[in-house]
Amino acid sequence: MRKFFLDPESSEINDIIRELGEHHYRVGVSPSEFNMALFELWRRIVQLISCKGARQLEDLLGQLFFELSARVFQAYFEARERDLREAREELEVLTRIYALLREINLLIFEERSDPRKLFQEACGIMIRTGGFALAWVGLAGEVVAAAGETAVLEGVPPLKEIAEGKNPHLVTLKEGRSVIVLDTRDEDIFAVWAEKVRDFGFGSFVSLPLYLDGLKGVLALYAEAPLHFTDREVRLLEEIARDLSLGYLHIVKTRELEKALFRDLLTGLPNQRFLLAALEHEIEVARIEKLSLALVKLDLDHFSSLNMELGRLKGDRILKVVGERLSRLVNQAGTLARIGSDEFAFSYLLQRISPALLLTHLENLFQEPIRVEQEEVKVSASVGIALFPEDASSPEDLMEAASVALREAKTRAPHGVAFFSPNLSKKAFRHFALIRELEKALGEQQFELFFQPRIRLRERRPASLEALLRWRHPERGLVMPGEFIPVLEESGLIVEVGCWVILEAARFLRACRESFPKMRISFNVSVKQFLARDRLIRVLQEILEDGFLPPGALEVEITESLLLEAGPEAKSLLSRIHELGIEIALDDFGTGYSSFAYLKEIPARTLKVDYSFVRGLPESREDAEAVMAIVSMARNLGKRVVAEGVERREQLAFLAGLGVDEVQGFLFSRPLVAEETLKFLNNFRSERFFW
Questions:
Q1: Which of 103, 186, 666, 691 stands 20 to 30 A from 498 (CA)?
Q2: Sign of the four-CA dihedral 214, 215, 221, 227
Q3: Which pLDDT belongs to residue 502?
Q4: How many CB atoms lie within 10 A of CB 688?
Q5: Does pLDDT of 56 surpass 60?
Q6: CA 384, CA 387: separation in Å to the nearest integer?
């Protein structure tokens, strides 16, 4: 007490005061109890002094006592506030780590197929939820996943020996224990490594072992702040590392089990057991989406003989290549399986493809020979197809239906094809046969062009020709366009045939222009041709490079539906065509939903009024008003107007009165073969059609 009177601000007194306040806080004295005890002490001191009548001493002691009390109270509450702050910080850390633990365990539950994806997603969670600056996973000397500030992994290879000192992550790998560096500024054992990572902005890190059943692994977590990792946090992180290890092992063991139960050992493809299980889900998807699901079974023709001739190793190689090609065909649309020594089967959800077109793709797959060492081997297959819901409603029944179809197909081997359903078989087989015939027609030049003249009304003379594709079948004669052009489009053959049309139309125009030097020609292009944009541009450039035709003599006809289906790239392709100097016509104008909007965005020179508006002229008021509106708008935009389907003089007179530029239709001529077209042009007399 004497020291307090002599020097109340001394460090010794301060220590005593702080100790007194903290002691009362530690033993659990509440603030109110502590306050009451101090006032009780003061009351007794006052009684003692009052008895002796020392008033001046009482005042002095009062001042010192209350100063002492205030400082003791301050020490008491500072200790309390410090503990509360530390508890809050600890709670925040634990909340973060428990959230991290929860997300990691949820990931382990959800990701059951890809161990690398498991680790990569885990590293991402460490950054997002854990708040770490860097997280990575190493297995057997290789970093397999990383997230965050990954530049350090290139600057400081994390799983390489360093000449100057120890690598903490290699210690974890070799010894299977955690390594914690709390402050990279003050580290002795791993000083060299700490200095290297400190240059990348890391203040602390922890290296945790992964227990992977013989395979050594490490989970590394880096933080920017020093002293980031508490003992309790490290224990929870070690628990997370053990959970990740279990998740990894579960995936690996599951894969091994699936491989034994559901995989073909030679090709790595699923087996029939797996396919049947997959069909359960795929049939349900098809039922909900109201789609057809095809099950295709195929048997390699005469494979046993081929296997004996080439040997088992080469035969195995052929099976693997066939499996790889089929995998590319099926892709995400179904499930492929090897179900026998020389049999494969696959399901296929028919979203944007018909059974016939699927068969075409399958047939093309076997066109290319298989190279085995120095030999090229041609392989074919017989194919049986069954459809859900037409042929069966369960996986087993669908498999049986496809088997029945395959047995029928093998009676037609090689290249045998059979559908299970008799009715569908006739229709689909006819469609498939038509695709084959069209391929043959292209190769044997069975296609030809017909031409329909377009008459310029001001001059009352033919000004242009529209090239129209026709197919002259050697047995059936002339096949109508509506029967084969949609099949060309669906099968993709339209790209090749369309190029032929453009080249043949240009060739005929060159012949025409010898007698009619201002004649132009137009031709239609399809969506598939637009999607194969480079091919279309090359053909057009090839024609122009010859120098025989000016660009303005050619006109590409497109439809509104093409613009919608081809998407944003259609506009850029039309711009390229326009830059070549070739004109563009918008066909069937007025029948779509976006005619007027597209007119401002595409460089179309010509609008072709659809036949459906011309047919009712001049009697139909609605048709008349529609055509007048189109002509008026075209005039304001500086477009040429062509009316299709003109069959009567009354229609011609009405359209001429509106100021339509050109017309075409049966009034003047049906589509004609090349020779008859030239005859029509030479013999054309306007007085036969005009007043």
A1: 666
A2: positive
A3: 96
A4: 9
A5: no
A6: 10
For residues 499 and 502, what is the distance between their CA atoms, to the nearest angstrom?
Answer: 5
The pLDDT of residue 291 is 92
Are 402 and 295 spatial neighbours (Cβ–Cβ below 8 Å)?
Answer: yes
- Do the beta carbons of residue 325 and residue 369 sit within 8 Å? no
What amino acid occupies position 247? Answer: G
108-112, 168-172, 645-649: lowest mean pLDDT where?
108-112
- Provide the pLDDT confidence category of residue 592 given band limits of 50, 70 and 90: low
Whether the predicted pLDDT of 137 surpasses 90? yes
Q: What is the DSSP letter of 550?
A: -
pLDDT recorded at residue 410: 86
Better pLDDT: 560 or 229? 229
In contact, 345 and 272? CB cutoff 8 Å: yes
The pLDDT of residue 40 is 63
CA distances 38 to 24, 26, 50, 143, Å, are: 12, 17, 18, 64
8 A C-beta contact, residue 354 and residue 364: no
Sequence-distant (6+) residues with CB within 8 A of 465 are 451, 452, 453, 454, 509, 512, 519, 520, 521, 522, 677
Report whether 246 contacts 108 (CB < 8 A): yes
Stretch among 249-258, 289-298, 511-520, 552-561 having the lowest mean pLDDT: 249-258
**What amino acid occupies position 27?**
V
Tokens at residue 94, please?
Answer: 């634990």
Tokens (6 digits) for 134: 């860097």
What is the distance between the alpha carbons of residues 502 and 556, in angstroms, rounded to a whole number? 9
DSSP secondary structure string for all residues of 134-196: EEEEEETTEEEEEEESTHHHHHS-TTS-BTTB--HHHHHHHH---EEES-TTS-STTHHHHHH
Nearest to 420 by CA among 353, 501, 355, 504: 355
The residue type of 82 is: R
In eight-state DSSP terms, residue 369 is P
Short-list 613, 619, 621, CA closest to 660: 613
CA dihedral (110, 115, 116, 120) positive or negative: positive
- With a cut of 80, say whether residue 205 has pLDDT above it: yes
User: At 390, is the secondary structure helix, strand, or coil?
Assistant: coil
* Cis check: omega of the bond before 115, within 30 degrees of 0: no
